[in-house]
Every structure is written in C-alpha cells, then in structure tokens.
Amino acid sequence: MVYADNAATTKLDRNAFEAMKPYLLQEYGNPSSPYSFSRSVRKALKDARARIAFCIHALPEEIYFTSGGTESDNWAFKGFMPYKKKNIITSQIEHHAILNACAAIERFGCSVNYLPVDKYGIIQPDVLVNVINDRTELVSVMLANNEIGTIEPVTELAGIAHENGALFHTDAVQAVGHIPIDVNAMGIDMLSASGHKFNAPKGIGFLYIKKGTNISPYADGGAQEFGMRAGTENVALIVAMAHALEANCKNMESAAERLYRMEQIFLCTLTEAGVDYLRNGADKHIPGNISISIKGANGEALLHRLDLKGIYISTGAACDSINTKISHVIKAINVPKEYAKGTIRVSFGVYNEEYDAVVVALAIAGILRNK
Ligand code: PLP
To answer: pTM here?
Structure first.
C-alpha cells in the first residue's frame, strides 16, 4: 500500500510510541496527586511542556494541552465572550474547525469578516488593512492551508492586527513540525497545533497563548493547565507528542528537502504520462503537500479507484466528499470549472519513499487512461 494522505493524519513515530508506554502501564499516577508515585508523572508533564515550548520558541507556561486542533481553534475563538458588538476577522479558506466556530459565535452576536484570497490562496495584507476596524478583537489566519498547502504571510498579518489593537491567532495545525515557527518573531498571540499531523497520536494537541493574553478558560473544573483547561492531563499522549515534535523539528530541513523532491518526481511523472492538470497553491507551501486539479476528471471517483489499488490520497475536500462538491478552498482560488471537479490532494510524509511518488502518479495516469 502507499499512504499519501499525511495532511489528513500521520503514522505514529516509533520512539514516541515507546516513550508513552510507561505512562500507560507503570507510571499511571495522576499528575496532580501529591504523593511520590506521581512525582515522575508530574515531571514528565513538565518536561514535555518545556520541550514543546522550545520547538516554537515559546515559554513552557504558554503551552496549554488540548485534545487537538479543533479544540484549540474553538478555544481561541470562544474565549472572547460576550461577543456582542465585537468583530473577528478570519479567511475564506480556513478549516471547518474555524469556520464552524465562527458560525457559532455569529449566532451570539459577533460579526465575522471572511477575507478573500488570491489565486494562489494567499491573503494579501492590504485586504486585511481595508477590513480591520476598531471593533476587531481578533484576527485569525491559518499558517498553512490544509487543502493546498499555501503558507500565509502571518508575520505581516499579525503586525496589522496589533497596529489596530487586535490579537492574532493562527491555526498552525498543518505547519507545526513541518516548517520553522517562532511565535515571538512572527508576532503570534495564539497558535493551534495538533499532534496527529506530526507523527504524534490522535486526540492530543495544544494551544499556545502568549503570556498576558486576556482569554477565558476553556473548561472549568480542577486547576490543571494553569486553571484554564480543567481535566486530568493525558500524560502518555503528551509525552509522545513532545517526542514526535522534537524529532520532526530536528529533521525538518532534510525532511523538507526529500519531500520537495518527491513533489517534483510526482509532478514530472504525471506530466510525462500526459495528464492535463493544474497545480494549486503557492510556491511557498508545506513540504509534500500537492493539490492538483485534473481536466475533465472526477476527484472523488479517482480517490476510490486508487483505494482499490491500495493507494490512499484525498480529494482535499473531505468535508464535501459525499456530494462531490467543489470545496470552499478550490472555489476561493477560482480553479477553472473544467478542472475543479478533478481536484485531488496527495500529501507525502516522512515515511514515504521517492518510489511512492512514481507509483501514485503512474496509478493516476493509468486510471485516467482507462476511464
Ligand atoms: N485545522 C486544520 C488546518 C486542519 O488541517 C485540521 C485537521 O485536519 C484541524 C484544524 C483539526 O485538527 P484535529 O483533527 O486535531 O481536531
């Protein structure tokens, strides 16, 4: 089989798996308990927080563990009650974790602006300058798009938010562990991350909240997560996440080099096989993320034909997959009609080999020839 859907989820790092095992089987004490049995568990939690913080140039006390990207995004948006008369600005191409959180707060009286993008999926800073106003509490723009991989100019966008007295949040779920991140240099006040996108387990993530940011707790209860997100911490998953993130950050440059090479191999093989496609997204994109729209093809049908061959990719529009609708991202970047329906996303990861790129491209070309 070839798994080429790493933007959806990734395989667990083996060392991360080994690192979490003791906290499931032997060291199962509650990290909040005062006795000596829990001391090592508490230390593991503290270490993991510090190691994760280091990877994005944050302080340990600025990392709040959550259940993943969706929860982190929801917290960043829902921590501003009451919403009445407030304004939040986001983009048209965000993940549904953001778009549906926006829909929820709009029902409570918050106004939300959705910034358009250019044909590469980039939010031009001028567009934000024209929309931001004195009621804007928060600007949230993803660091990298999950469908087309485009990396957004968040440093500029954060600067504009701050000049206008607003906070800046970024959904960095597709970016953490894949591109360098320095929350201070980039001017980020809040950042969402999800472990399973960087070879950690599913169901664990974090929200970075810059020290001094005025945001309400997400869950009320015990004093865990500095009293901001109550509930006994999932120590095993947190330890595994720290391991996986460290490993990804350590090998980031060489992994990116390999992944960009795989992209070239994949695209050249498609071209040589005569496939008529457009590549979506910007030059500056997440390594290994390839969104293409194939003329006259049906992305959904292609996905299922590849599935029969043991090749796993995505249409890049998973949320709309049942209706084979064109995704909000593909619409936002104005992919020509005759190509749009034939959109697929192939996303290679650290466990792929260059050979996989050839196998996937030839399989696609073969299916299109025999349709
Ligand atoms: N944000 C983006 C950009 C994503 O790609 C995803 C997952 O696909 C999420 C948020 C949701 O993350 P999680 O699956 O951890 O809830």
So the answer is: 0.97
